[in-house]
Each structure stands twice: as structure tokens, then as C-alpha cells.
Amino acid sequence: MDSPDPDSAGLNLTLARLRAAQQRQVPGYSQRIDDLKRLRAAFKSRLDEFAAAMSADFGRRSRHESLLTDGMTVLNEIDHICGHLRRWMRSRRAAADWLFLPARTEIRYQPLGVIGVIAPWNYPVNLALNPLAVAIAAGNHVMLKPSEHTPRTSELLKQLLDGVFPGDRVATVLGGSALAAAFAALPFDHLFFTGSTAVGRKVMAAAAQNLTPVTLELGGKSPAIIAPGYPLATAVGRIAAGKFLNAGQTCIAPDYVLLPQAQIAPFVAEMQKYISQRYADLAANPDYSSIVNAAQYARLKSYLDQARAAGAKVIELATGDAGQRILAPTLVLDARDDLALMQDEIFGPILPLVAIESVDAAVDYVNARPRPLALYHFDQDRARTERVLERTTAGGVTINDTVLHFAQSELPFGGVGPSGMGHYHGREGFLAFSKQKPVMYQARFSGMALARPPYGKVADFLVKFLTR
Ligand code: NAD
């Protein structure tokens, strides 16, 4: 369970210890690979414990989904890093401007120092260990603050990391929002935050006091657009897979669907079929997860109560179980734009369907709202798909499916505007946690000597030539 919040002085001491060790000896390639391999092996041997801890924290969480989304993703990311790190670390020759030849220039990749990582509860392992692994790969030391809403998993993360790393290389601190606020105020060399947009604003304000650069991985309302003519059963299956994974508690889950009015009734029918085939007896179904806590459950219930009271049609596709905080997959039709579920990020298994007559109108709808973390477009027309890609701005896109762009190690992952800033995953993460240090090596002979005072005829000629 949560340990008591340490005071700011304690946090500062921990940071100072990490920083002193990092400065004393910057970890080289072999050390980094060794660290990552030990982390991988220790994590792999405890996968089942982690799945059980997450299930206990959520009330019930699908073991298969935990092993895939919090297990496989971390193992794959570490493997990808280990396979590429030597190349990423290599200094890159850059061409010197001709005027300065024969000088040489290069870019070196240097660790930033100590990285602060703040993680949320929804994928509590993945969103802690993936940034941590790539920060380690870039040669940094790391201080991690996991979520207080998954206390067993956070405790297990601490045990895992304390076992793998010396305390002056990786430190894990546990606690609630007061500790988190003190953590964000520490003078890290970089602060990596995953969580809500509202808390992201506070994190950035705190970091600004130290001019600590931030990566903010935030949330938002991610639309799914279904173009006329796209096979509906395929779209429904792929939207449902992304939406009901982790019972909708996924930052890049489709938040709502834009589709032609004539498709709404068939969409509902297809979704009813999908849910009855995939999620029999929801209350006893180990493949469908609980809502993480009573506050989140009440928030989602209040969206539905408000929608019903405003005359929207609420279609529960199965029978939930309030005792276990199982909220059934639910469609909402005719929801007014001012309802909370049309304004807030839903972050649960509720899916509003919005009638929209053309793909261009759908693009206008998306563009009239804050830039989303993800956008999904289902279409068989390539020219129209291209138009959607050109006209919309989102953190990431999957065409003809949902959420899978997240799993691509070579794609930068991150939001834009209110859905976040900065990227990670694979090399993008390595770059986010590295200083790209430009170095110029002057040659024994340099033409620069011609450009020194007192300026005479040669300098006149040079200036005239260079400003021609
Ligand atoms: P949250 O913002 O409530 O909490 C995230 C973390 O911030 C927790 O560890 C919490 O202790 C800490 N925190 C709380 N107050 C703080 C403060 N004042 N200063 C610094 N840190 C503070 O988010 P959550 O409820 O845990 O997660 C859900 C949100 O996260 C959703 O909005 C979701 O979209 C987003 N999310 C984004 C991504 C992504 O990759 N972009 C991934 C998962 C979740």
C-alpha cells in the first residue's frame, strides 16, 4: 500500500543522490544494455505477479489484456531498444558549412541527467517502464512516481526496480497528489508526465519554475470516423476492440464515432451482435475489466444519468454489476453537444454515436474541437483518406483500425496541443532523453583568420562576396 508522502527535503536528497551518481560516471553502452537486460529478465519473471496486482487494484482486470498491454509492450520496447541502441548512440557526422572547411562537425548524443517520470493508473506498468527503459537507454538516471490509484502495482514496481537498480541509479517514490506536486517541482533535467490534461497544466507550471523541459503525454477526445461505404461489421469490430480494451480506460480509445445517420441503426445492431458474441455474462467474464475505483465509476454513471435526463438514447449492450464496478459497454445516441460526455474525455466503455453526413463535415467537426490524441478513419477511398490526413491534426492516427499505432516502436508517440507535447517510443524516446550536442572541431588551418580586425582590403572583398 501507499507509503506516507516523503517531504520535499527527502525528495530533493534523492534527486541529489541520483544526480551526483550520474555525473560521477555516465553509464556507457555495455552498462545500459546490461541494465536493460536485467530489467527485462526481472520483469518477465514477475509478469504473473504484475497481472495479479493490476487485477487486484482494478477490482478485476483481464489477465490476457494485462499481459499484452502492460507485459508484451514493455518486453518489446526493451528488445527494440537493445537491438538499436548501438546505432542510436553513435555520433553522427554532419557536413560543415563550406566557408569553415576544413573544420569538422558532429552531433553527439549525451544523457540529459536525471529524468523524472510521473505515471497514471490506466496502464500502470507500461506507462512507467517504457519511458524509464528508454531514459536508461539514453544514459540517464531516473526517479519514478507511479500512480497512487493502483497501490499494489506501484508497490510491485518499486520492489522490481529496487531489486534491479542501485538506489542512486533509479529511485521509485510512492504517494498521492501532494507528493506528486512536490515531485513535479523538483529541478529535474527533464520531466516526463503521462496523465490528464488538467494535471498536465499543473505539471508544466511547476516545471517552468526550474525551466525543466517537459514531455506531456495527455488525453482528449479521440474521434473515429466511418466513411460511407466502409464495411460496417469490420469497423464495429475494430472500434469495439479499441474501445472495450481495459473497459475503455485507454488514453487512445475511440471516444466517439462520427458516421452517416443511415448507418447508426445498423451500427447499433452490429455492436449488439459483437458484444453478445464476445462478452457473455459480463459480471462473471474475466475478459472484461472493472472501472478502477468508485470515483471513476460514479463519474461515468453520472454521464449516463445526465444524458438520459437530457433525452439522449442510452443503450446498454449487456448487464453490468455495480458491486464489482463493471460498467457495461454502452452506446449513446442523440447526445446534445453540451452534455458532459460530449465535452470531457470519457475514459470508460461509453461510446456516443454522432450523425454526420460526409467525411468533410466530420473533418470540420473534429477541427472545431481541441486537437485529439488519436484519430481513427475507416475508409476504402484513398484520395478521401489522404484528405482527412491532410486536413486534421492529431497526436497519432490509425487508418481502418484503432489504437495500433501505439504499438509501433518506430512511430513517435505523443499528443499535440491539449493532448500533449513531445514524443517517445523507440528512437524518438532516446532523442527526447538526450542532449543532441553539436561539436565543431577546428582544423589546424582556418580561413577565419581572414575575418579579423583590423579590416582591410581582403576583408572588404570577403564581405562583399559573402553578402552578394
Ligand atoms: P492524472 O493526471 O489524474 O494522474 C497522473 C499522475 O499525476 C498520477 O501519478 C498522479 O499522482 C499525478 N499527479 C496528481 N496531481 C499532480 C500534480 N499536481 N502534479 C504532478 N503530478 C500530479 O491522470 P490519471 O487519472 O492517472 O490518468 C488518466 C489520464 O491520463 C487520462 O486523461 C488519459 O487520457 C491520460 N493518459 C494519457 C496517456 C498518453 O500516453 N498520452 C496514457 C495514459 C493515460
Attribute tags:
single chain; 468 residues; alpha/beta; seven-stranded mixed β-sheet; six-stranded mixed β-sheet; 16 helices; globular; binds nicotinamide-adenine-dinucleotide
Verbal overview:
- This protein has helices at 8-24, 29-45, 47-58, 63-89, 126-137, 151-164, 177-184, 197-208, 232-244, 261-278, 294-309, 340-343, 359-367, 382-391, 426-432, 457-466; strands at 92-94, 104-111, 114-118, 141-145, 170-172, 190-194, 214-217, 223-226, 256-259, 313-316, 330-333, 350-355, 374-378, 396-399, 420-421, 434-441.
- It is globular.
- Helix 3 crosses helix 4 (63-89).
- The chain has 468 residues and is α/β, with parallel strands linked by helices.
- Helix 5 links the parallel strand 3 (114-118) and strand 4 (141-145).
- The termini are far apart.
- Bound molecules: nicotinamide-adenine-dinucleotide (NAD).
- Residues 118-122, 127, 145, 147-148, 177, 180-181, 184, 194-196, 199, 202-203, 217-219, 251, 345, 347, 373, 415, 420 line the site of nicotinamide-adenine-dinucleotide (NAD).
Q: How is the topology of this model organized?
A:
Layout: H1 8-24, H2 29-45, H3 47-58, H4 63-89, E1 92-94, E2 104-111, E3 114-118, H5 126-137, E4 141-145, H6 151-164, E5 170-172, H7 177-184, E6 190-194, H8 197-208, E7 214-217, E8 223-226, H9 232-244, E9 256-259, H10 261-278, H11 294-309, E10 313-316, E11 330-333, H12 340-343, E12 350-355, H13 359-367, E13 374-378, H14 382-391, E14 396-399, E15 420-421, H15 426-432, E16 434-441, H16 457-466
Parallel strand pairs: 3-4, 3-6, 4-5, 6-7, 8-9, 8-13, 9-12, 11-12, 13-14
Antiparallel strand pairs: 1-2, 2-16, 7-15, 10-11
Helix pairs in contact: 2-4, 2-6, 3-4, 3-6, 4-5, 5-15, 9-10
This protein binds nicotinamide-adenine-dinucleotide.
Nicotinamide-adenine-dinucleotide (NAD) binds at residues 118-122, 127, 145, 147-148, 177, 180-181, 184, 194-196, 199, 202-203, 217-219, 251, 345, 347, 373, 415, 420.
